[in-house]
Design goal:
binds pyridoxal-5'-phosphate, 12 helices, 12 strands, 7-stranded mixed β-sheet, globular, 2 domains, alpha/beta, 5-stranded mixed β-sheet
């Protein structure tokens, strides 16, 4: 079990700012000759006599990242081979016949996990408008799990985690928040009352588009034990190299995010004034319908993701994105480099409800004027 992992690593001072925590948490205990960084442990088995017996039990490279994420999220973190593997482990907590409440605008892969279970009549699913807090609260009645995604992909909807988690708990349901877009530095779902927080560490935590990884953190020991057992018994373990790289990425999360968030706010403002842009979704933007809730729930900013809609056909939008020279026309997000794509380019059912010209933009740490010149030129070509 991974409950005592903090004992292996250097102590984190509770008074530290988070920029200090990301730089320091999960390092080996300080002693003469100790390594500065937790080494990559490549071993499928261990000598008998400790908690670690076989490779699926645990690995110190995983534990170092889990110690750091646990500090940031405020609970016990368990890492997985991808964000969806972590989501699958969380979904396994729903009992047969249980109802899961999930936002219509949630990441399509997560909706797919629950949809597949519902197709087999293992569970029922109720889709809700995540931005409609009253509807989310009403849907909690009779639920076994209430899934939130805040900030949501790709609509950037911010959910009222406190109110919805309270209603979920009242109903005896497990409250889960996918906080991939917000990152552990912009939102603390467990402090807001959620039971479990999910991160696709593939994105901002890794930060360099070179790995896939997921994490589930909870402050409920019974749930932590079940999540750990699921990983052990089902085998969706992380790779030692991936956890090493993700922890190295985490070291710079504070500076990366400060920079890319500044860029995102500036680009959202410039996009909103462009004649070809009909709508900009960025919760921190003045005039955005979610500005108020963002100020309340995301006091340190809304992160580095934005999306916008165009006065164009989907084909025109695609060719504009393909013409970009600096920003890369590719899926995924959260890296130091800017990526953009029209989400509805995938099969309609995968992105049901996503406007046809909605472009999701993962803003990187490049110079903001270079990014704008590239984007403006592409928009003006349409
Ligand atoms: C919000 C969100 N949750 C979960 C996932 C799944 O993560 P992974 O791709 O690491 O499996 C993604 C991937 O894009 C995502 O954007």
């Amino acid at each position: 079990m991974n409950q005592d992992i903090n004992a292996q690593f250097a102590q984190v001072d509770k008074s530290w700012n988070e920029a200090t925590v990301v730089a320091q948490a999960g390092r080996p205990r300080r002693s003469a000759g100790a390594a500065m960084s937790q080494p990559i442990t490549l071993s499928s088995t261990y000598v008998h006599g400790s908690d670690l017996s076989y490779g699926r039990d645990g690995n110190n490279s995983w534990s170092a990242l889990e110690a750091a994420l646990g500090e940031l999220d405020g609970g016990t973190a368990t890492t997985f081979s991808s964000g969806l593997a972590a989501a699958t482990a969380i979904a396994s907590l729903v009992p047969t016949g249980g109802k899961v409440v999930i936002p219509q605008a949630a990441y399509y892969g997560v909706k797919g996990i629950f949809g597949a279970a519902a197709d087999l009549n293992h569970i029922t699913v109720q889709l809700v408008d995540g931005a409609d807090t009253a509807a989310c609260i009403q849907a909690c009645e009779g639920a076994a799990m209430v899934w939130m995604e805040s900030i949501a992909n790709p609509t950037l909807v911010v959910q009222d985690i406190s109110a919805i988690s309270a209603a979920a708990k009242n109903a005896g349901a497990i409250a889960v928040v996918d906080a991939t877009f917000a990152t552990p530095l912009r939102q603390k779902p467990l402090e807001l009352g959620a039971d479990i927080v999910l991160h696709s560490a593939t994105k901002f935590i890794g930060g360099h588009s070179d790995l896939l990884l997921g994490a589930a953190t909870t402050n409920n020991d019974a749930l932590a034990a079940r999540i750990y057992s699921y990983r052990h018994d089902n085998g969706a373990i992380p790779g030692a190299l991936e956890t090493f790289l993700a922890l190295r990425g985490l070291r710079t999360l504070a500076v990366r995010l400060d920079c890319s968030q500044r860029n995102a706010l500036e680009l959202a403002t410039r996009l909103a004034a462009h004649p070809k842009v009909t709508k900009v979704n960025y919760p921190g933007l003045e005039g955005d319908s979610q500005h108020e809730i963002a100020q309340q729930l995301l006091p340190h900013g809304s992160g580095a993701m934005l999306s916008f809609e165009l006065d164009a056909t989907p084909e025109q939008a695609d060719s504009a994105l393909e013409s970009l020279a600096l920003i890369t026309h590719a899926t995924s997000l959260g890296g130091v480099e800017s990526l953009i794509e029209r989400r509805a380019r995938y099969e309609a059912e995968m992105n049901a409800g996503v406007p046809l010209t909605l472009c999701r933009f993962s803003v990187g740490i490049e110079n903001v004027n270079d990014l704008w010149r590239d984007l403006e030129a592409a928009l003006n070509r349409m």
